[in-house]
Amino acid sequence: MANQYDRMEGIDDLSVEEFPSWAGKPVDHAWPWWPLLPLYPYGRRRTIVEELIPNQIWGFEQLQGLYYVAVPVRMTVVKVPEGLMLFNPLPPTPELRRAMKSLQKLHGPVVSIVLPTASGLEHKISLPSLARVFSKADIWICPGQWSFPISLPLGWLGIPSGRTKVLLQDGLPHQDSCDWISLGPLDIGLGRFQEVACFHKASRALLVTDALVGIQAEPPRLFDFDPTPLLFHARDVGDEPLEDSEAQRRKGWARLVLFASFLRPEKLNIPSISQVLRNAFKPGFRNAKAHFGLYPFEWKEGWENSAKEILGEKTPKIQFAPVLERLVFPRAKDTLFSWLEELNNLRNLRWLISAHFTAPLDFRPKEIRQLLKSTREREWAKNEGNWRFLGGVDKVLLRQKIVPKDPLKAFRD
Ligand SMILES: [Fe+2]
User: Fold this and answer.
1) Which residues lie at CB < 5 A from ion ligand 1?
2) How many A from CA of 265 to the centre of ligand 1?
3) pLDDT tens digits, one per residue of 223-265
4) Three-class SS string for the chain?
5) What is the set of domains in the chain, with CATH numbers?
6) How far is the CA of 150 from the centre of ligand 1 (A)?
7) How much is the pTM?
């Protein structure tokens, strides 16, 4: 599918010489640094560009994931008085750079790049290369950046220290046009969780990273380039052919969202190795696309109902990302509540744009009140159903004293 910013008049072709080639030819969506974080689709990433709020905000989406559990990741481009702000970095493939070039011709240069999360690795990994492409932009990063297994200085991580500032500690960017609202910090043992949301007043949009998402039953457009990840998961056994239909795509998407949200959803069995191998390497499946027929999943009856917990049928369902809710906020519900109250006090808030899933989402006081009410009424830090696996992980981390009982204590002392 062509994207509209490729077709704009007067756009020069970007040089792709510095990028690697596939079979001797440079490609538009190559991403040479993928071995740093080997996520599907590895070195080949397509980008979809969408105007989310007319003349104000654009979304750039690429797929990222593990073993075909790939979900879209979004960089948000915001028009500010001085030019453009990039919020949540993405790998700057030639395709992305060309679309950015056309936006810059219309709206001015990239003046700032914001990494608003302390912990979201999939958002951090491309900051150094994006910073090199936009070499005059100021870099703003969330406080408490950490690397695993050892904490490295910013320069070692490829973040240019000469033009990098820390949000809140060194001030805030574009304060006339944006309000900044921090969620956290919370101590999560290995490092900290914090993300700083941005309310862009002109568009009335709130930009977040991972905390809030809106998920719908229809798969994202990015899968139109290659629906294989959806069709792969729509099957019941490894030797079932990958059949393409709208129903199969939706089925695969629902399962993929269950994986991404709960890591090991309630209605999933992991079959024995001998069972997996019995269905593998059959004629017609001896190729990488079909993962050689290896399919280590078995969905139990009723999985569709458990997907309804997180998928909105007609409109996207707005929710806290389940992994964060159960592993970061199980003992810090009040922190989430006060952040939501702060959002509720923003004047004229209209839209929510997250770094994952559907955007923009309706996000007015009515939707915030609904979210507050439903969160207040339901059981928090559950261990049953889809939450069982995440609950078990939390219990082990707590028992091993890897995560503290009180995630706020370190910041009170
Ligand atoms: Fe994320």
Assistant:
1) 120, 210
2) 19
3) 998 888 898 888 876 667 778 999 999 999 999 899 888 888 8
4) CCCHHHCCCCCCCCCCCCCCEECCEECCCECCCHHHCCCECCCECCCEEEEEECCCEEEEEEEEEECCEEEEEEEEEEEECCEEEEECCCCCCHHHHHHHHHHHHHHCCEEEEEECECCCHHHHCCHHHHHHHCCCCEEEECCCCCCCCCCCCHHHHCCCHHHEEECCCCCCCCCCCEEEEEEEEEECCCCEEEEEEEEECCCCEEECCCCEEEEECCCCHHHHCCCHHHHHHCCCCCCCCCCCCHHHHHHHHHHHHHHHHHCCCCCEECCCHHHHHHCCCCCCCCCCCCHHHCCCCEECCCHHHHHHCCCECCCCEEEECHHHHHHCCCCCHHHHHHHHHHHHCCCCCCEEECCECCCCEECCHHHHHHHHHHHHHCCCCCCCHHHHHHHHHHHHHHHCCCCCCCCCHHHHC
5) 4-216+320-371 (3.60.15.10), 221-308 (no CATH)
6) 21
7) 0.85
